[in-house]
Write a structure and sequence with these properties.
394 residues, mainly alpha, globular
């Protein structure tokens, strides 16, 4: 009986989704956070690092909503499979391609076109599954993405330490290839809304003031958090840390996330989604100010322990908040807009902003300025939430 129960758990759709989260987020962490370090190792300055890194998010801003609309119309599972396979292939090309500026730019564009769709589509598949399995929550499934991110960061840190930063692309590709046996078990969820969707129905979504104002706030918070996500490896190098220490810092991030995927649901019930978002914004500002006053590599590991409250809570609450603001038939589009705002517009502006500042002032000063930006938008969000009717807390 115990063996049959174990087999049932292993074969369940929920376990399948958890494993996809593990491998896809391991791939994400293997590539994206270390990309700035790769560019620096190629002897590029702050502005050029910012320009090239922002290409990923320019493509996300423009193409991500198109992926969402296509998936809502034609099927999420086929789009998810296509994005994973194309990403794995193009990351391999990136690894074997030369190190010239032109090849780096072309490979960055190609990988981004496919890779940007993986996580939003996976989130939507998880939300669809939760609809018919109320015993689960988004955080319960997304938890395994943090596990994968920790594995990806630690493995990639070791790979860079013993080989070179160019191997981030090979490592990310291998993790994505591990998704293949599990993604072929995915099944498309059919709903009563699926067959009657029309593109004119998206107009009310785009006219939703509550949604649009929140997405604007997310853009600027993302701008500030860019210095955490994509420049932390550079910051660590500047204050004397090793490449392995950078991987360890990202692993601490992932471990710090784990309890908050479960605590998020508790906080939503106790204080509401909106107050949870505000709490996360405040924690982000404090985290940025701590980077600004620190110059000791080991102390960074302690600061990274705040990742769960400063980022995980914000992201889980934002996903749930947007999910409740949109109709079920436009769920993928709503999540794609959130990803386009945070990882698209926010990261474009953030990479350009941080790259510009980094050529002129130390990274500690960049963190102080970005902490101030988050404080400003914490106050703005406080007023926005008071003005907009609170109809998503249930």
């Amino acid at each position: 009986m115990a063996a049959n129960k174990l087999i049932s758990v292993i074969q369940s759709p929920a376990t399948n989704l958890r494993l996809l989260y593990v491998f896809s987020y391991a791939a994400w962490t293997a590539w994206i956070p270390f990309f700035g370090l790769f560019l620096k190792d190629e002897h590029m300055g702050g502005s050029r690092i910012g320009y090239i890194s922002s290409l990923i998010w320019v493509i996300m801003l423009i193409i991500q909503p198109m992926w969402g609309i296509k998936a809502d119309k034609s099927g999420k599972v086929p789009c998810y499979k296509a994005s994973v396979l194309l990403s794995a292939l193009l990351l391999l090309v990136f690894f074997f391609a030369g190190k010239s500026l032109l090849s780096i730019v072309l490979c960055t564009v190609g990988c981004s076109l496919a890779f940007i769709a993986v996580q939003p589509l996976q989130d939507t598949l998880a939300l669809d599954y939760i609809d018919t399995n109320p015993g689960l929550s988004y955080g319960n499934l997304r938890f395994w993405g943090a596990v994968g991110a920790g594995v990806g960061a630690q493995v990639t840190g070791l790979v860079i330490e013993h080989l070179s930063s160019q191997y981030i692309f090979l490592t990310a590709s291998i993790f994505l290839l591990c998704c293949i046996p599990f993604m072929w078990r995915l099944k498309e969820k059919q709903t009563k809304h699926s067959m009657r969707m029309e593109f004119k129905d998206i107009k009310p979504l785009l006219a939703n003031k509550g949604l649009l104002s929140f997405l604007v706030v997310i853009v600027f918070v993302s701008l500030a958090q860019t210095s955490i996500w994509y420049y932390i490896t550079i910051y660590l190098k500047d204050i004397g840390a090793s490449d392995y220490m950078a991987g360890s810092a990202l692993t601490v991030d992932s471990l710090g996330e784990l309890p908050f995927y479960f605590l998020a649901a508790v906080l939503f019930r106790k204080i509401g989604i909106r107050r949870t978002i505000l709490l996360a914004f405040l924690a982000t500002a404090i985290r940025l100010f701590l980077y600004a006053v620190n110059d000791k590599p080991m102390a960074v590991l302690l600061i990274e322990a705040s990742h769960g409250i400063s980022w995980t809570l914000m992201w889980v609450a934002s996903v749930e908040y947007v999910n409740r603001l949109v109709k079920p038939e436009w769920r993928t589009t709503g999540q794609s807009l959130l990803w386009a705002a945070y990882y698209g517009a926010g990261q474009i502006l953030g990479n350009l902003w941080v790259g510009y500042l980094y050529e002129r002032i130390p990274m500690q000063s960049v963190y102080a300025i970005n902490g101030g930006i988050v404080v400003v938008f914490f106050v703005i969000t406080l007023f926005l939430f008071r003005k907009i009717p609170n109809n998503v807390e249930s």
